Amino acid sequence: MSTTTAVGGSERLARVLPDALAALHEVLERHRVTEEEWHAVLRFLTDVGRADEFILLSDVTQTSVLIDAMSHAADDGATASDVEGPLYREDPPWREAPVKIYEDYDGMGECDVLFVSGRVTSTDGTPLPAVVDVWQTGPDGGYDLWDERQPDYNFRGRFRVADSGVYEFQTVVPKPYTVPTDGPVGRYLDAVGQHPWRPAHIHFKVSAEGHRTLVTQVFFPGDPYLSDDTIGAVKEALVRPIERHDGGRGGVDGPYATCGFDIRLQPARGG
Ligand code: BEZ
Ligand code: FE
Known about the structure:
The chain has one domain (34-265): Protocatechuate 3,4-Dioxygenase, subunit A (Sandwich). The longest helix has 20 residues, at 11-30. Strands 1, 2, 5, 10, 11 and 12 form a six-stranded mixed beta sheet that branches. The protein is an alpha/beta fold and 271 residues long. It is globular and about 65 Å long. The chain is built from six helices and twelve strands. The chain has helices at 3-7, 11-30, 35-50, 54-60, 63-71, 184-192; strands at residues 99-100, 113-122, 131-135, 156-160, 166-172, 177-178, 197-198, 201-207, 214-219, 243-245, 256-260, 263-265.
């Protein structure tokens, strides 16, 4: 359901909403929910809205994963999509080659430099001069938005891919982290006994002319939360090995890591 149809009071809205309410009424009746309990639910939803946490709520209830699966069920031969999450920031800085998506900062601590590379193609193998937009946490688990030590937009950036489709960027190996727990969604997680951890990952948003924009994430083997992601977003097809190397490379002294991630985009329908 597109935003326009949902907001515009369309035929789709008129069909989906009564069904959703009938399902809700059935649950309220089955559990004999009291007036007091229902008012607590309404207060909770009000708090979620005020804290701008509806996307987070959709994610931790694994509703986003369900919508992602239904939206991409017909994709054929494309890289698997994944949930965007609430931490994407519009208009990240453009990064020029050789692409590095972070600046070192005071208190950055120990981290493993990582070069991620691959090729962007269409599902038939044609290379695509795409735009790749990536975002991830810093080396001790935090996004720039939560970590005042980091420069704004650190560990975020977009860059243009050459006609060959080949890309590479420098980052650091991310670590597992917890989704925000200081708001109403944190209270929800506590109440239902759900942990807030996500496995380490890098988010990608990749666009190219004539193709569906791909939103996805890459995960790494051996992560303790790979089979227990609080938003349930890990897909086997998106787990990529990291290789460790001794010696320096590209302005990096000492050991570094590499990870390969080829990206195939689905041609747009009718295009
Ligand atoms: C994230 O991966 O950035 C994320 C996803 C869902 C909830 C919170 C964060
Ligand atoms: Fe994330």
